[in-house]
Amino acid sequence: MNKKEVFKLAKGFRGRAKNCIRIARERVEKALQYSYRDRRNKKRDMRSLWIQRINAGTRDHGVNYGNFMHGLMKENIQLNRKVLSELSMHEPYSFKALVDISRSAFPGNKAVVPPKKEGLAILV
Amino acid sequence: MAALSLCSSLTPKFSHSQQNPTPISSKFNLSSSSFLSHSLSSLTLNSRKPPHTLSFVPKSNGTDTEVALAEPENPEAQPVIETVEPKREEVFAVVMVGGRQYIVFPGRFIYTQRLKGADVNDKITLNKVLLVGTKTSTYIGKPIVPNAAVHAIVEEQTLDKKVIVFKYKKKKNYRRNIGHRQPITRIRITSITGYQDSPFVTL
Question: Residue B182's Cα: distance from chain center in Å?
């Protein structure tokens, strides 16, 4: 890469790394290595986030993530975790329908006790 | 999470009446009228709101944040333009294209992997529909909803934004700088059909 391209990629870097070519070239190479690695990490991180969101959504209905997914697999519902997390956020009634289907396909959750609210949360 | 529960508890109240004795909802009224800062007749617009809120609120398929956004926008548009949009049915589907699943609404577009052999302005039918949701019911497919189809038009066949693939091994004098643009297709969803006869869950 010539200097012009290096400086274009070095926008927003701290200190001399955005102005001086020797330092900028090192930092830009490091940044590109990180972006190569993180394009692969992003897929892992997003899946982890979706699973956390689905877990939160199902636990509101008394089912945990593991049993929920087991029930869906048994019923041969092939929605992926990305879509399930979006449904749990924006389409709560459809998501509740899915949770009910999963619960009937694979029972095995104890009745959920809503967490005790303390302080100002009691007013909500 | 508390804010979300506030919204969900408030939306049913809006459907009944604008004036509510409870302090929380009156605060909400004030904040929504503050959005309409430029309209003097904000009160009259609020009184005209019920016909519109009813069309939005019963779609209580979540979208709480969308309701909060729609309310201030609606009265703003009323005095300015009276154009009537063609009534789009409020339905969504989960469709599988190119190995990936998308939540799809009629009238919006999505980017998918390049569909080979499709030219611009071609009509396309996507058959692998995994879930269809309407205002009142959800059709869950095991794995697909039978006879459901999503119709779309190919808008554009382009390349994605360039990513730089830079491979580097330290102290071994190995550097490779490669640019990559993935071929993608933009398709505009026109309608979702064929799901009426399938088993559904009423909400």
Answer: 25
CA distance A57 to chain B (A): 11
Q: Is residue B194 part of a domain?
A: yes
**Which residues of chain B neighbour A86 with C-beta distances below 8 Å?**
103
pTM (2 d.p.): 0.69
Question: Over the stretch B3-35, which tens digit does the pLDDT of each residue have?
Answer: 444 434 444 443 344 444 444 444 444 444 444
Residue B79 lies in a domain: no
Task: Evaluate whether residue B127 is within a structural domain.
Answer: yes
With b for 16 or more beta-carbon neighbours within 10 A and e for fewer, the B74-93 pattern comes to bbeeeeeeeeeeeeeebbbb
Whether residue A71 contacts residue A106, with contact meaning beta carbons closer than 8 Å, is answered with yes
Q: Which residue of A has its CA nearest to B91?
A: A91
Domain that holds residue B120: 92-156+184-198
What's the structural domain count of chain B? 1
